[in-house]
Amino acid sequence: MRLEPRASASPAATLLWPAGAIVATLLISSLLVMLAGASPLTVFWLVFKGAAGSQFALLETLTRATPLIFTGLAVAVAFRARLWNIGAEAQLYLGAVMTVVLGTGAVAMPSAGLIPLIMIAAMLTGALALLGPAVLKTRFGVDEVVTTLLLNFIVLLFVSMLLEGPLKDPMGLGWPQSQRVIADAQLPRLIKGKRLHFGFVLALASAIVVWVIMKKTVLGYEMRAVGHNAEAARFAGIPVNRVIVKTALLSGGLAALAGFSEVAGLKGNLTLDLSPGYGYTGIVVAMLAMLNPLGVVAAAIFVAGIFVGADAMSRSANVPSYIAQVMVATSLLTMVAAIMLMRYRVRWR
Amino acid sequence: MDTSQSPEAETVLRLSGITKRFGALVANDAISLTLRRGEVVALLGENGAGKTTLMNILFGHYTADEGEIEAFGKPLPPGDPHAALGAGIGMVHQHFTLADQMTVLENIVLGTRPIWSLSLGKAQARAKIRKLAADYGLEVEPDRMITDLSVGERQRVEILKALYREARILILDEPTAVLTPMETDALFATLKKLVAAGLSVIFISHKLGEVQAVSDRVVVLRGGRLAGERKTSEATRRELAELMVGGQLPVNEIGPPHPGAVLFELKGVSTPALGGAALKQVSLSLRGGEITGLAGISGNGQAALAALISGTLDAREGEIVVHGTHVGEWSPRAALDNGLGRIPEDRHATGMIGDMSVAENVISEAYRSPRFSRFGFLNWKAASGFADEIIRAYDVKCPSADARVRLLSGGNMQKLILGRAFDGNPDIILASQPTRGLDVGAVAYVHARLIEARDRGAAVLVISEDLDEIQTLSDRIVVMHRGQLSKPSARGELSVMELGELMAGHGPDEGAPHAA
After folding, report:
1. What pLDDT, on the 0 to 100 scale, is given for residue B8?
2. Residues of chain A contacting residue B333, judged by C-beta atoms under 8 Å apart
3. Best CATH choice for the domain B10-88+169-245 from the list 1.10.1410.10, 3.40.1740.10, 3.40.1000.70, 3.40.50.300
4. ipTM above 0.90, yes or no
5. Which of A252, A269, B38, B139 could pair with B4 as two cysteines, CB 3.0-4.6 Å apart?
6. What CATH number has the domain spanning A27-347?
7. Which of B332, B354, B380 is closest, CB to CB, to A236?
């Protein structure tokens, strides 16, 4: 078997292969559903209903998609420049920490000033968190996969320490949780009485901004050039190391916004279960989106929908909600295969 | 048995009607070829003419869509890499396939003995290798490590490897590309001895001089088809060239140079090693209106010199002087700002970004100028306009400015690089292996542009492993050996053999062993 590159993917192929990937995902997942003793069609229908079958379901899916858009963008930006940021989880938590530090009463000002201030501070915190690995990479050639991945654990333990110590809520009955952010620091809800909050709007706006950066600006051009061929970029006079550092700052900042938006928009305080792995799922989201910033929005909603839908389904169909993780993981694999088939033609000898 | 030229000699290899398609591309179109006992057949053709595909089919790496192969009267099963070896066909690739950390003997014996045999049978093997080496002029000490051998010696090991396995047909793919002129002569002598002993040789090349020197028959491929077949003794060089190119050969007129002021100077520069030797105390000055050619065998420091001038390798000591002023910090950016136009050795790895568009690639050296960007935003209209300009001016064959560069041929890619490097008429030009892998038409085009740059007063440095190219283009020649430069010589001052001696490190001062 050999792969031959295609000159260009036909429009039909760009639609058909991803569609085929979804069908393959459903087929593979249905095997597991059947193993669990349920009917695949019923289960998939329940997942769909749970994700998008009602206003409540839909809003829940979008709420869940919000942090994934941020972490997905963070990963997409970094991966585009071949900076393998596996540490979105850590940057998310550090953004959340900064939100709690500034948002629980330490700074008093009207929300029109306070919210942007916290947002920027959170972004800076996340950016600084990735600055270290970026500098180690550019200066000493230290592999950023290792440093960013390990930083996740360090940061999580650091947050745990904070929640047992300086940030611990004195009224929290001993639970490791922070105080709640004050009203002026809270993001407004988009619909009264529902959970969807202004963070979703920020996420959409971020996706558009990132898209503009990648497509229209000098920085985006440099990032793509460095990602596609760093040696050629260097030869052409593009400051490769500086571009990697800038990419790191942008990526870390975006991931930190996920933490900010979860605390200020949804949860209200910081706990150790703020993120069920949004930083890691961001990698899946970015890959599904083929690193396209606008695609990240669609991919995040898709992944969030499967998780939310599977939760609802497991309550009524007696199939464990773990099926959601299998579906997301399978969809990533089939999508990677579909992308490859879009670019290459398979030849059997 | 030296009736090598006689048409009655037995046919040892017959390829009939070989056709191979890759999608819409027909790489081999009904090619037939016969090889007789005791003859050298040259397979002549430009890059992309289908030579390599044909040999890959012979060796079972590809399966032909149509046609069959017969070796020594028996059909060769398609798609089986072992079949050709078993039938007594040996191949010497352009890129050697030797294990560096093993001895010559071990490399040759490797794979010839069953894995459960307890000994390598070294003594026996050593004797056999010695005898083969003596018979065919392939002197190489069996117990030396491959790392310690020169390129020419490694090639001899490859040939010995094939002979050790009782090959009766030897295929050599561009064997002289890595050799000095003396080593080339030695190789030709070996080939003569081999055919005299009844072996048959297919010699793949795109160099006419060599083909004429070594072959009995020439088979010319062009665009995947058999363009013609001639007896070497009856064909003129011009005829072969025209068969190969399919028309008139473009010829560049090069007038006398008008040397001007020194525009670029290296003074006692040393660098770390890069892709071969490091530079040791290299001094070089380039004058405006003059092409300086730098010859040398691959890996003698050319890569380091090119990287140094391009700005991607830092000097350990020494000075760079541009337009009479000493430059401090040197980098790709500084090189560009100082008016250098640079053509890198490797188009794919260094020259272009394959997955980006033509427009994105041509602005990569100038995207920060107000012409292409403002307030951090790129002006894509200006970029496409510039790309279209280059496409027109340099006759680049590509669908549009939005096409991905990966899809372009080597020649067209090189034209884009020229267009980018020559934008703004740089007065110092570094062209590193500027025509490697290009077809004759593209070579002539690149040469014409370099001569044009010289004639408008630019100082041009051409680094090439192709001595013909150096001799065609250069007003002045320097030779690099183990990171050091020879004294410059004027055009025509030294013969090919004398240049070859310099390339091999036998300077006139050191008393060359072959000096007359």
Report:
1. 62
2. 237, 239
3. 3.40.50.300
4. no
5. B38
6. 1.10.3470
7. B332
